[in-house]
């Protein structure tokens, strides 16, 4: 089964977004403008990436594929940094948000490619979609982890400084905060896995079924992807929590909240 969405069909779904913005205004939630901006970005970004991928698929250049993947990693890091309630100051701030996501995404995407064994590892039809789905999940998990950690750091400042004053190392004093932040970062993928097939049909599986793939085969691919996402999330939250703990203290194991800036 193959069905091409028309412009009118896409426009019809936009009514739901406009209605959601209207509901936000009525309830004074204050998210109408961000919702409409996000919807506009969705349309522009996805249509542009569709055009870019069309050219990539026709070109089949591994160098262009790598360039696009690097751009995706950089954009994910910047997006994570810009969405924080409190940001670390200094030139390493964006790197702090980017590196954990990049490390987790590259490792898990490489593992996926090694498992699937495509004829060409850097084929854009395989490498870019895999990185995209893994990267999006790692970015969300890292963003939640970092935001939770910095928020708890401000609230628990006195307790952390007391432990440091008693001789605890920075990682010992910050371990409870790291655990809580990492736990929050893992909750979305855990919920997604727990609900898959019982409460919801995941997006990839739904898309493959609509495209004509047998449901059982689509289910196997979805399990494969969910396990990849769980691995990427775990790596991202672990790396983010340790990177944040390192940045929030100095070599003399002192808490450095002066490095945090509220947005």
Q: What is the topology?
A:
Blueprint (H helix, E strand, L loop, with lengths): L6 H21 L4 H28 L2 H21 L3 E3 L4 H24 L7 H32 L1 H9 L4 H26 L7 H8 L4 H33 L12 E3 L1
Antiparallel strand pairs: 1-2
Helix pairs in contact: 1-2, 3-4, 3-5, 4-5, 4-9, 5-7, 5-9, 7-9, 8-9
How are the strands ordered across the major sheet? 1-2
Give the radius of gyration.
Answer: 21 Å
Please indicate the count of domains.
2
User: The biggest beta sheet, please?
Assistant: 2 strands, antiparallel
Strands, total number: 2
Global mean pLDDT: 88
Series of secondary-structure elements, N-terminal to C-terminal: HHHEHHHHHHE
Q: Could you estimate the helical fraction of the residues in percent?
A: over 70%
Measure the end-to-end span. 48 Å
Taken as a percent bin, the fraction of beta residues is under 5%
**Shape call:** globular
How would you classify the helix and strand content by structural class?
Answer: mainly alpha
The count of helical stretches stands at 9
Query: Low-confidence stretches at least 5 residues in length (pLDDT < 50)?
Result: none
């Amino acid at each position: 089964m193959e069905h091409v969405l028309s412009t009118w069909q896409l426009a019809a779904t936009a009514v739901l977004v406009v209605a959601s913005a209207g509901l936000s205004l009525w309830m004074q939630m204050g998210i109408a403008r961000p919702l409409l901006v996000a919807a506009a970005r969705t349309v522009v970004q996805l249509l542009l990436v569709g055009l870019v991928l069309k050219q990539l698929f026709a070109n089949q250049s591994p160098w262009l594929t790598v360039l696009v993947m690097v751009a995706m990693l950089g954009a994910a890091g910047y997006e994570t940094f810009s969405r924080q309630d409190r940001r670390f100051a200094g030139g390493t701030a964006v790197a702090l948000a980017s590196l954990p996501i990049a490390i987790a995404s590259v490792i898990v995407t490489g593992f996926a490619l090694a498992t699937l064994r495509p004829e060409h590892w850097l084929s854009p039809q395989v490498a870019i979609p895999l990185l995209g789905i893994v990267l999006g999940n790692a970015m969300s998990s890292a963003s939640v982890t970092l935001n939770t950690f910095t928020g708890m750091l401000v609230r628990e400042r006195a307790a952390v400084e007391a432990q440091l004053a008693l001789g605890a190392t920075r990682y010992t004093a910050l371990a409870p905060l790291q655990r809580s932040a990492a736990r929050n970062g893992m909750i979305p993928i855990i919920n997604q896995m727990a609900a898959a097939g019982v409460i919801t049909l995941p997006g990839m599986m739904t898309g493959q079924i609509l495209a004509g793939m047998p449901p059982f085969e689509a289910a196997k691919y979805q399990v494969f992807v969910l396990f990849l996402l769980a691995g990427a999330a775990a790596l991202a939250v672990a790396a983010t929590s340790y990177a944040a703990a390192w940045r929030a203290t100095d070599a003399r194991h002192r808490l450095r909240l002066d490095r945090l800036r509220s947005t």
